[in-house]
Structure formats: C-alpha cells, structure tokens
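Exercise: predict the structure of this protein bound to guanosine-5'-triphosphate.
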Amino acid sequence: MNQATSVDVKTLAEGLARADRSCVANALNLIDDKRPGAHEQALQLLTAIDGERLNQGGHLIGITGPPGAGKSSLLSALLERWCHRGLQVAVLAVDPSSPKTGGALLGDRLRMSAAGQHKNLFIRSLASRQQLGGLAPEVWPMSRALLAGYDLVLVETVGVGQSEIDVANIVDTTVYVVQPASGDSIQFLKSGIMEVPDIMVVNKSDLGSIATKAANELTQVLHRSEQHTAWQRPVCKLSARDREGIDALEEALKAHRDHLRAQNSLTSGRMQQQVAYIIRQLNDEFGSHGIKKLGGSKQIAAHCQSLHGTGQMLASYNAWVEELRR
Ligand SMILES: Nc1nc2c(ncn2[C@@H]2O[C@H](COP(=O)(O)OP(=O)(O)OP(=O)(O)O)[C@@H](O)[C@H]2O)c(=O)[nH]1
Ligand SMILES: [Mg+2]
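Solution:
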C-alpha cells in the first residue's frame, strides 16, 4: 500500500473550524484513509482542534430506530429549520448496506430533500461495519472533527443489531424513532435497549389514534423504569411528513443538552466516549495482549481520565501505539 501523502494538518484544522466544505471533505477523507501514515495524521488533526469545542461545543445527536420509522424524514424536517435559522449542520448517515450493492444511500436521500442543498449543511454517507455489525470505527473521530465547525452534528443509523447501541455511545443525545402499529414499540420494549434513547419519538402521528396509543404505552413503560434518574425521557409524538410536533422535539433536544450541562456531564460523557474509543482502537490493533501489556483497560482508562482534554489523550494514545509496535 502506498504511504499516505502528507497534509498540512494545521490548515486543515483551521478550515474545519470555519466549516469550509473542501477542508471538511479532506479531513473526513484523511480519517477514512487506511494507508500507512494516514492514521497518525488524522490523530494530529484531532489534536489540532480547539479543545473547548471538543469538550463542550455544539451538540452531537444520534437518530436511530427500526427501518422505515421515518428517521430520514424527521432529519429533513429538523435540517430545514436549523439551516434556515443560520446554524451550521453536519450529518453522518451510516448506511447498513455496502455502497457497492447499489440502492439509494441514506445520505443521498437526504440530499434530495428540501434542505439537502442548503449551504450550511454538510452530509457524508458511510457504510456500517460489515462483519461485526455496529458502527465503523471512523464514525467517532469523524463526529469529533465535525464538531470543530458545526453547531449540530447528527448521526443517522438504522437500528439493527449493534449500531443503535454504538451510536448512543458516541453522541450527547440519542433520539429513538418508532412508528405506530408496526409492533415497533412493543419490539423496542422487548429488545432490551431501554437504555439507548434519551428522547423517544413516535412518528407518523398523522395515522391518528394508533399513534396516540403507542405514545401512551411508551410513556408508561419509560417512566416506570426511571424513577430514580434525573432526566425523565420525553416521548414526542409527531409527523415528520406534515411537519407537526417538531417544535416539541426541538425543545426536548435543547432541554437534554441543558440537562447534561447542568449535571456537568456533557464534557465528562464526551471524555468517557473518547477513552472507550482509544481502548477499542488499541484492542482492534493489538488485541487483548496489547491491552494487557499497557496494564489493562482499567489502567488505561484511569490514565486517560487524569489527562486534560483530547489533545493530551491522543498524544498518550500515539505513545502507546509506538510502544506496542516496538
Ligand atoms: N404517514 C407518514 N409517513 C411518513 C412519515 N414520515 C415518514 N413517512 C414515510 O415512511 C417511509 C420511511 O421514511 P424514511 O424517512 O425513509 O424512514 P427511515 O427510518 O429513514 O428509513 P430507513 O433509513 O430505510 O431505515 C417513507 O415512505 C416516508 O414517506 C410521517 O410522518 N407520516
Ligand atoms: Mg433513513
């Protein structure tokens, strides 16, 4: 494999902060680049991003839920509002199918929507990890790179297998979308992913009483399960198609972000996600043997927690990689 060409990381980081389209595209390509040398440059890039932005800037939102529930339609409704209000919005659309199999990618469908062409919007489609299910490892660093220049960074993923749990582990707020009368709400209750959503959406409220019934059912079950938690997870009944009920979802998103800030858990949550990412990367490259050599995952996590910010953590990561390669 050819060595990756050397890029000017500082210029790229400055371009990212301005949400300059070509810089954003180049930055994401660099993170996606599998050639030798690219990984180190990608880490340097993340290290060059303003720590304040990474720790507590913007809002990272995951949108997940079963196929056909209306995730992309809802995303379009939200994008229209945010872009027209002048906010900078980026979307990572994680498609379960390989780009090679053809068919419309999630991101392509979004691009065709009304908001899809807006100058404030950046969309990138990605294939999900084929073998293990779940999100590809690039999604985490990409979401962070986007945070440098965008007010809102959204990750859409179809809720099948591991991906809905993975997405909840990389964002601040997870929105779980179901549609009524499909058995989805019941499946959701049975499938043991109760921890995933911060906000529940019952879409297609235009279908009438079945939507109300599903929303009531979900409200009851969610609230029964969380008597001791500070955040009461709201259930938003809305119609993405008719643009009804979107206000309440927007309010809920803001309220959840404010809640995280008030609890001081926006920054700490992002830090934990970063530690988890570092351990996963080390494990992928060097296996459990490598993790053990560094003193075990608990030791690695403790060391990371003692550092300040993304830059220092990634520098540590680089040092560990070097040590294990020796
Ligand atoms: N009646 C009604 N139909 C809707 C609504 N929102 C979406 N749909 C329809 O539901 C279907 C699926 O919508 P998508 O937005 O593609 O759903 P999705 O969850 O992104 O689907 P995947 O990405 O394939 O999992 C489409 O035919 C939409 O037109 C709604 O509010 N009401
Ligand atoms: Mg979709």
